[in-house]
């Protein structure tokens, strides 16, 4: 199937209900390349200057970050006569161009959707590109392109239908993260399933049934993959447990309340949450929902190299009894460089540096940080709950805390409880 898809990108763009001929695609490519040629070299980039340089365009918006006086990023949005939109982005330092991006967004009746991106260097030479393709209701791909915006370097999956398989049973653990590459073989047989034999889980970012791995806060063309690597540690250390993936609701964090409620309805007893932010207000719905259900949330302390008692990260610094906050240590029990700490709000640390992971492509690698402490403790919790399913969330938390002990190589004031040298052998 992958070979056919690579051939198709040169002949047609597949969208739900649409087939775009090669000639039309070539026109789209030319539109983007012409935008780079027309705008990238302007001595002063403004929305009106971009509108004047690109025939048939009309200015929609212009933004300067962090401010108009000394912008590091200038973003301009233009609408074209065919209802498509062009987004122009200039990235600079002290006024000097570092990178230039031009992207085309197509409107097939439901509003503009990202389609094609060109990325140019400081000399306005297009070095690479991205193309988003859809096939059917669930399949979506991201092609990495050469500077000609036609030659495909490689293809990533952005969204996929649920795989077939059988629910093996076991303790259900929900992962609230950037999603999961659930079509990889390492996960297929550890997905919890409902009565209809379909896997449980939901995408609270896009509000659709497929929580595929991809944090697109940097833009739809540049997804960050995090959830798959984290979850791969869990399925290795808790092979008898079942995983339920939920893609976290970055566009509206109030949806976290619904996420917790759905997880509880799906039979989840443990939530693994290797994520956080600095805004307590974003976690109000989550905290209220967590206190309403008998679910233990295992959360990461973060990797800002700071004391979260003094400079909080949430949800790690929330006061709920149903939160267990973890951070990363080295193999000797020393706080890992860059990992957060806190005598009040950080409960335990476990070795989570240079841990073996599987990434969203299915490739092996290593990763470090408090995010990767979360699946190790979640796997420990799942094994303990399998032995004693009658435990409440708070009783389960206390069972884990009793396994922690002071580290002989770490100063006081780092943790509220201690470290667990080997979560696989407490």
UniProtKB/TrEMBL annotation:
It comes from the Bacteria. GO terms for biological process: proteolysis. Pfam families: Peptidase_S8. The keyword NAD does not apply. Residues 170-404 form the Peptidase S8/S53 domain. The active site is at residues 177, 226, 371. InterPro entries: Peptidase_S8/S53_dom (IPR000209), Peptidase_S8/S53_dom_sf (IPR036852), Peptidase_S8_Asp-AS (IPR023827), Peptidase_S8_subtilisin-like (IPR050131). This is Peptidase S8/S53 domain-containing protein. PROSITE patterns: SUBTILASE, SUBTILASE_ASP. Keywords: Hydrolase, Protease, Serine protease. Signal peptide: none annotated. The keyword Hydrolase applies. Belongs to the peptidase S8 family. It comes from Ruegeria profundi. GO terms for molecular function: serine-type endopeptidase activity.
């Amino acid at each position: 199937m992958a070979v056919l898809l690579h051939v198709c990108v040169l002949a047609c763009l597949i969208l739900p209900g649409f087939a775009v001929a090669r000639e039309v695609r070539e026109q789209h490519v030319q539109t983007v390349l012409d935008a780079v040629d027309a705008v990238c070299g302007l001595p002063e980039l403004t929305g009106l200057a971009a509108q004047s340089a690109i025939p048939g365009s009309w200015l929609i918006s212009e933004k300067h970050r962090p401010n108009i006086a000394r912008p590091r990023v200038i973003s301009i949005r233009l609408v074209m006569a065919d209802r498509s939109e062009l987004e122009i982005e200039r990235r600079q330092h002290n006024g000097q161009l570092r990178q230039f991006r031009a992207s085309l967004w197509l409107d097939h009746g439901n509003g503009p959707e990202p389609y094609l991106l060109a990325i140019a260097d400081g000399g306005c030479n297009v070095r690479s590109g991205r193309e988003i393709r859809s096939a059917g209701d669930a399949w979506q791909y991201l092609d990495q392109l050469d500077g000609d915006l036609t030659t495909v370097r490689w293809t990533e999956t952005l969204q996929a239908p649920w795989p077939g398989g059988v629910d093996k049973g076991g303790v259900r653990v929900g992962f609230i993260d950037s999603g999961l590459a659930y079509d990889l073989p390492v996960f297929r047989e550890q997905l919890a399933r409902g009565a209809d034999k379909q896997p449980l889980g939901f995408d609270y970012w896009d509000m659709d049934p497929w929580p595929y791995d991809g944090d697109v806060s940097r833009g739809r063309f540049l997804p960050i993959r995090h959830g798959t690597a984290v979850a791969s540690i869990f399925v290795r250390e808790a092979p008898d447990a079942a995983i339920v993936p939920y893609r976290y609701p970055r566009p509206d964090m109030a949806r976290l309340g619904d996420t917790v409620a759905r997880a509880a309805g799906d039979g989840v007893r443990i939530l693994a949450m290797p994520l956080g932010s600095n805004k307590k207000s974003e976690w109000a719905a989550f905290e209220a929902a967590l206190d309403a259900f008998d679910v233990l949330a295992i959360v990461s302390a973060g990797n800002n190299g700071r004391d979260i008692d003094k400079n909080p990260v949430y949800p790690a610094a929330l006061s709920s009894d149903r939160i267990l906050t973890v951070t990363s240590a080295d193999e000797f029990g020393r706080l890992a460089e860059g990992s957060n700490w806190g005598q009040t709000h950080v409960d335990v640390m476990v070795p989570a540096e240079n841990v073996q992971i599987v990434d969203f492509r299915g490739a092996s690698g290593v990763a470090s940080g408090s995010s990767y402490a979360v699946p190790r403790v979640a796997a420990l919790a799942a094994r303990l709950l399998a032995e004693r399913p009658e435990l409440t969330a708070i009783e389960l938390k206390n069972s884990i805390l009793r396994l922690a002990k002071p580290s002989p190589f770490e100063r006081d004031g780092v943790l509220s409880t201690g470290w667990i040298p080997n979560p696989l052998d407490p």
